[in-house]
Amino acid sequence: MNNNTFVLVLAILDHHMCDRTGRIYPIAGVIDSPDFKHDKDITTGLWGVLWGKISAGSSWVSAEEDSIWIVIKTEVGGLIKIDEKNGIVKFQKGEVLFKGNQETTPRFIINHRNDIRELLQPDASRIKYSDLAGSVTESFGVDNHVVNKGFAGRCTTRGLNSHAVTMGDKSSSVAREDSSHAINLGEDGNAVATGNMANAVAVNFGSRARSTGLMSKAVAVNDHSTVVSTGSESMAVGLGIDSRGSAGEEGILILAYLDRKGRKRIATGYVGKDIEKHIVYRCEDGRFKKVI
Question: pLDDT per residue over 159-197, tens digit each?
Fold first, then answer.
C-alpha cells in the first residue's frame, strides 16, 4: 500500500470468519481478493462498513451473538461505494488490524480514528460513538452491573450498586446515581435514572423514560411515548402525542395531546385532584383517561 491516506472498514463475519458471500477473512495481517472486479458485486471483492457507521436493522449486516467483528485498514483510492446511505464499500485489499465483537470493535475504531501512524483520513476525528454500529458498555463504581445486547446500543452505570440494561437496537440506558436502575428494551429508546434509588424503564420503539429525583420512577411502555418522574412528590411528563404517564404521591402528570383542530396542547393533572397516584393515564381533548 503506497497511498498515504487510509480508512477503517468494519466487516461482520460468522464464527467461521466468513462473510455472507462465503469468503474467509484472516484473524490478522494482509488480505487480498485475487478475483476482484471493479463493480458493485460483493462476491468479487472484499467489502464492509466504512468506519463502522451503519444503521441498526440494515439488511447489509446481521449481528448474531457469536459474530466476529474485524477492522480492516485500506486505501481511500481503492474504495467502491456500493450503498452510500449505509456506508457499504468494496475494495480489493487491506490489512486486518483488529478482531473482536460488537462491544470491543467500536471502541477500537474510536481509539484509532486519530492515529497519525496509520495516516487515516482527516475527517475521521469527527466520528463519535453514537455514529457506530456495535455496543458500548461502561461501568464506573462498585457493585455495578451492565448488560448490553442491542445493535449500536449504549449502556452506562455510575454510582454504587447501580444497574443498566439495554436490549434494543440503537437504544441507550444510563444509571448515574447510587442504587439507580435503567432498563431499555425497545429499539431507538432511551432510559435514564439520575437520582439515588431511581428507576427508569423504556420498553418499546422510540420510547423515552427519565427519572431524576430521589426514589423516582419513570416508565415508558408504548411506541414513541415519553415519561419523566422525579420521585415521591414527583412530576411525570410525556410530551409525545399518545404518551402515557403516571406520577407518585402528591405528584404532577403533564401529557401532550391534540385538540379537535389538530393543535398540540398540554394538560396538567395533580395527584389527589385530577388523577390518582401510580395510575397510568393518557390524555384526550384535555382530559386524563385511565389506561386499562
Answer: 788 877 777 666 667 787 788 878 777 676 778 788 787
How does residue 68 score in pLDDT terms, banded at 50, 70 and 90? very high
Q: Which residues pair with 281 in a beta bridge?
A: 245, 290
- Residues whose CB falls within 8 Å of the CB of residue 171, separated by 6 or more in sequence, listed in order: 150, 153, 154, 184, 186, 187, 188, 189, 190, 191, 202
Is the Cβ–Cβ distance between 234 and 215 less than 8 Å?
no
Q: In this structure, are residues 47 and 7 in contact, taking their beta carbons and an 8 Å threshold?
A: no
Task: Classify residue 125 by burial, with Cβ atoms within 10 Å: 0-12, 13-18, 19+.
Answer: exposed
Note the pTM of the prediction, 2 decimals. 0.56
Regarding beta strands 252-258 and 264-270, do their DSSP bridges make them parallel or antiparallel, or are they unpaired?
A: antiparallel
Domain range list for the chain: 6-130, 136-290
At 204, list the grid cell: 418499546
Q: Taking the CA atoms of 241, 242, 248 and 252 in sequence, report the sign of the dihedral they define.
A: positive
What pLDDT, on a 0 to 100 scale, did the predictor assign at position 113?
Answer: 74
Listed in sequence order, the residues at least 6 apart from 260 whose beta carbon sits closer than 8 Å to its beta carbon are 285
104-132 tens-digit pLDDT: 888 888 888 766 566 666 566 666 655 66
